[in-house]
Amino acid sequence: MLFRSKQGAAEGELTFVSGHPGRTERLLTVAELEYLRDRQYPISLAYLKRREVLMRSWSERSGENARRAKDELFGIQNSRKARDGGHAGLYDPALMESKRQQEKALRTKLAANPTYASAALAFDRIQEAQGVIGRSEQRYRLLEAGQAFQSELFDIAHILVRAAEEYPKVDGERLREFAEAGRASLEMGLFSDKPIHNDLEILSLADSLTYLSEQLGAEDPTVKKVMAGKSPRARAVELINGSRLRSVDERRRLYKGGTLALAASDDPLILVAKAVDAEGREVRQVMEAQAEIKKQAHAAIAAARFALEGKGRYPDATFTLRLSYGVVKGYTAQGKQIPATTSLGGIFERSTEMEGRPPFDLPERWQKKRRAIHAEVPFNFVSTHDIIGGNSGSPVVNRKGEFVGIIFDGNIESLVLGFAYEETQARALSVHSAGILEALRSVYAAKPLVEELVTGQRK
Q1: What is the number of H-type helices and E-type strands within the chain?
Q2: Which of 313, 435, 445 is nearest to 369 (CA)?
Q3: E-state strands within 352-426
Q4: DSSP code for 436
Q5: What gap in Å lies between CA 453 and CA 437, rounded to an integer?
Q6: How do beta strands 395-397 and 403-410 pair?
Q7: Exposed, middle or buried: residue 264 (CB in 10 Å: 0-12, 13-18, 19+)?
């Protein structure tokens, strides 16, 4: 890809992005969207914010704590931001009304033609399945998805308990995470000797056991079984300090020993994992059965929609190659006009404004080269391209096919693109080609590389 555009992406310019967008949910029914908006997102966000506060406050106690929690805190924050943006989009009355009208029009067409009787009923099947999911969702996320047991050691115990039961089965009858194709990867993680820190484990497990008790109530039979008459903090200390699963040799012994070794084990985390296994499997079976009902119903709707509308509506993203077009264009957020481009000088201003605190701290090399950098050169730009997770790294080209930027993210308003395209505020974020070249020249002293990128010739 050559950097032959003299100015790079310019405001108002039509540009194109080729990439592999990962996953959108634009064909969800209104019942599913309402469930996300009113139930799933609020619960997920409350849980993530709880975890974020826990990890952040623990990190602030010392530099070592911050180092240990860095990756988990980043993952929590990233998940929270993603859901915040999508949730906000579902509260847009115009978006939801548009979805209702589209669904109403399609259902009217389907009802008018006996050929599509199955598709016409599919919307009701999805709504019924969503109701069953709603009744099972709480115990599923606590016991099977692991929100009640946020601990690396518990995860190890859970895998060992499940592996002993799943691997003797025929491959096709196992839970999907124990399929033979993924066995080497599972074992690599299970027998990793990466450090596990007791203090962080106790902190995390104590909080999640508290969450379990809050969600189901202290008198719930499962809660009583897990807590064994102790407070969440005392139980977490007992489980973590009493476990031998920190030892990779012990994990290997239990893994190779299978059901006999697990039956003889008195490791407290193994005992808890066994105690909740049956109920976890039960709620998982319910959720997966309803998911399959929805999948089949969506297939019927999709087939009917294609028969009626042909290629007029493209399918949801599935990591397949797609071409998107859009315009380099600013937007308004919270009453403030956001420009189409930022400048290299702006990153120094922003770092100073934030007193150099992470993530606004600049590398020493950049600080030393500040005077050499042309501050007015564009650094990033926003555009109206239809992107989603998976598009990061996608090239942006102009009408001549010249490289003018590279996608790296979307603004928080763009997270609604998972449900519907929107161009008023949703924007793709790209690094500007001019900024890339200026950084190579002035910061990294890579002028020969710049010449090659611009001319296509290596000297």
Answers
A1: 16, 9
A2: 445
A3: 378-383, 395-397, 403-410
A4: H
A5: 9
A6: antiparallel
A7: exposed
**Percentages helix, strand, coil for the chain, rounded to the nearest 5?**
60, 10, 30
Bridge partners (DSSP) of residue 19 are: 322
Query: What does the alpha-carbon distance between residue 54 and residue 77 come to, in Å, rounded to a whole number?
Result: 12
Query: Which stretches does DSSP call E strand in 143-295?
Result: none
Contacts of 300 (CB under 8 A, 6+ apart): 118, 119, 122
- Kindly provide the b/e burial profile for residues 36-74, where b requires at least 16 CB atoms within 10 angstroms of the residue's own CB: bbeebbeebbebbebbbebbeebbeeeeebbebbeebbe
Q: Report how far apart, in Å, the C-alpha atoms of 409 and of each of 80, 170, 290, 323, 339 are.
A: 16, 42, 33, 17, 16
Torsion angle defined by CA atoms of residues 64, 68, 72 and 73, in that order, rounded to the nearest 10 degrees: 0
Angle between helices 433-442 and 344-353 (to 10 degrees): 80
Task: Write out the DSSP string of 33-66.
Answer: HHHIIIIIHHHHHHHHHHHHHHHHHHHTT-HHHH
Q: Is the pTM of this model over 0.70?
A: yes
Enclosing H/E stretch for 74 = helix 63-90
Give dist(CA 386, CA 15) in Å, integer. 12
- Residue 315: asked if its preceding bond is cis (omega within 30°), the reply is no
Contact 240, 201 (CB under 8 A): yes
* Assigned token pair, 432: 């500007």
Return the structure tokens found at 209.
């056991």
If phi > 0 it is left, if psi is from -120 to 50 it is alpha, else beta; for residue 258 that is left
Structure-token pair, residue 90: 């579902």
Question: What one-letter code names the amino acid at 201?
Answer: E
Which residue shows structure tokens 């719930």? 220
Residue 180 tokens, joined? 């033979």
> Structure tokens of 172?
């096709």
Q: What is the DSSP-derived secondary structure letter of residue 141?
A: I
Residue 248 and residue 379: Cα distance in Å, rounded? 47
**Average pLDDT per run of 10 along the chain, which is 459 residues long?**
84 97 95 97 97 96 94 94 91 95 95 93 97 98 97 98 97 96 97 96 98 98 98 98 98 97 97 98 98 97 92 87 96 94 96 92 96 97 96 95 96 93 95 97 95 87
Sign for the pseudo-dihedral over CA of 69, 71, 76, 80? positive
* Cβ-based neighbours of 83, under 8 Å, separated by 6 or more: 41, 44, 45, 48
Output the CA torsion sign for 147, 151, 154, 158. Answer: positive
Strand 341-343, strand 336-338: pairing: unpaired
